[in-house]
Amino acid sequence: MDKHTMRALQDVSTHKEAIIQKVLHQMQQESYPSKPKWTYRAVTIMITCSILLFIAWQAAQPIDQVATEVNEGEKLPFTDLFQTEVEGKNTTFSQFFPIANYLSQAKNIKYYAPLQGFEAMQSVATSLGNAVHLTNSEDLPFKPNIQEVYAVTSKMDDGSQQTQFQFSFKEKSYTGVDLQYINFTVTNVDRNPLADYVKSQNIEDTLGIKVSNVELNFMNPLLFREMTPDRDFTYIYYNYDEAEKRIYQMNTRANEFYSYYNGYVYHIGYQLDGVSQEVQEKMANIVRGFILGN
Predict the structure, then answer these.
(1) How does pLDDT run across 252-267, given as a tens digit for each residue?
(2) Alpha-carbon span 13 to 36, nearest angstrom
(3) How high is the mean pLDDT of the chain?
(4) What is this structure's pTM?
(5) Are residues 168 and 278 in the same domain?
(6) Which of 48, 73, 98 corresponds to the end of one domain?
(7) 145: Cβ–Cβ under 8 A, 6 or more apart, which residues?
(8) Is the domain of 240 the same as that of 141?
(9) Is it the case that residue 191 has pLDDT exceeding 50?
(10) Enclosing domain of residue 51
(11) How far is 271 from 273, CA to CA, in rounded Å?
(12) Is the pLDDT assigned to residue 179 strictly greater than 70?
C-alpha cells in the first residue's frame, strides 16, 4: 500500500463523522420510497459506511504497532549511549582467578561517564542483545539508591576490540561510601578463559580459600569465591568522581561469581547484609537470571 493510498484512508478515518452526517442529511432530504427499495438503500448505506470505517481503522492501526515495536526493540549504537569521554586508569578484572589476568593486558583504554538510572541500564542491556538480562531493583536482596552503568573500551595485545560494561546497584551513604552493592561486569572475549582453568587445591588448603562451582547450567560452570576479610584477595570495580570527571578503581573485598557464556566473561562482586549462605543462594539465582534470562 503506497503512501498516497494510506493518506487517503487516513483522511477517511479523520472525516468519518462528517461522512456519516452527510449521508444522514441526504436521507432526510429525500422522500421515502417504497419499503423494499428503502430497506435495500438503508442496508447498502450502512454496509458502505462500515466498510469505510473499518478500512480506515485498519490503515491506521499497523502504523502505530510498527512504531511501538521499533521504539521498544530498538538497539541504540554504543556512540549514541555513551557520549562523554572522561579520565581513567586501568581496567577491572578478577585478581583471584588467574584465568582472567589477560584481561589486564588492555591498551588504548577509553573511559565514559556512567549512565544513571534503570532505564539507561536497560538501554545498554538491550544493545547487548541476549547477553544481559537485568533484574529490577525490587527483586534484589537490598534497596539500592544508585543504579548506573559504566563502559570502558580498549584494544588487546592481538589488536582485537574489547568493551567492558559494569552494571551497578549500590546503597551509598550520605558521605559517598558504598554500604551495600552488586556489580555485574560483562566483557566480550574471543575465547573461553575457563577452558584453561585448573582449580588449585594447594591454594585452597594453604590459604583456606574456598572456590566452588554452583553451576550456571548443566554444561557451564559458575564459580563462586566467598569473601575472606582476613585474606589479601582484592575485588576491583569502577566508581566515578563527578567533580573530577574521572573513573577510578575501588579496591576492596567482596564475594565473587565468575563465569563464561557465549562470548562474554561475567564477573559479579557483591557485599550485602544478611546471613551469608542465604544471600549466596539468592545471588546465585540472580546471577543465573542475569546471564541466561530465566
Answers:
(1) 888 999 999 999 999 9
(2) 31
(3) 76
(4) 0.70
(5) yes
(6) 73
(7) 170, 171, 172
(8) yes
(9) yes
(10) 3-73
(11) 7
(12) yes
Q: Which three cell numbers stand for residue 64?
A: 502505530
**Average pLDDT of the segment spanning 200-210:** 56
pLDDT in tens, 125-143: 999 989 999 999 899 999 9
Tens of pLDDT along 32-76? 445 555 566 666 667 766 665 655 544 444 333 322 233 445 666
Whether residue 85 is found in the same domain as residue 206:
yes
Look-up of cell digits 539465582: 285
Please check whether residues 117 and 206 belong to one and the same domain: yes
When divided into structural domains, the chain yields a total of: 2
Residues 170 and 93 in one domain: yes
| Joined grid coordinates for residue 189 | 572475549
Phi, psi of 107 (to 5 degrees): -125, 165
Q: Burial of 82 by CB count in 10 Å (0-12 exposed, 13-18 middle, 19+ buried)? A: buried
Regarding whether 98 and 36 lie in a shared domain, the answer is no
In this structure, the answer to whether residues 27 and 105 fall within a common structural domain is no
* Residue whose entry in the numeric block shows the C-alpha cell 551513604: 173
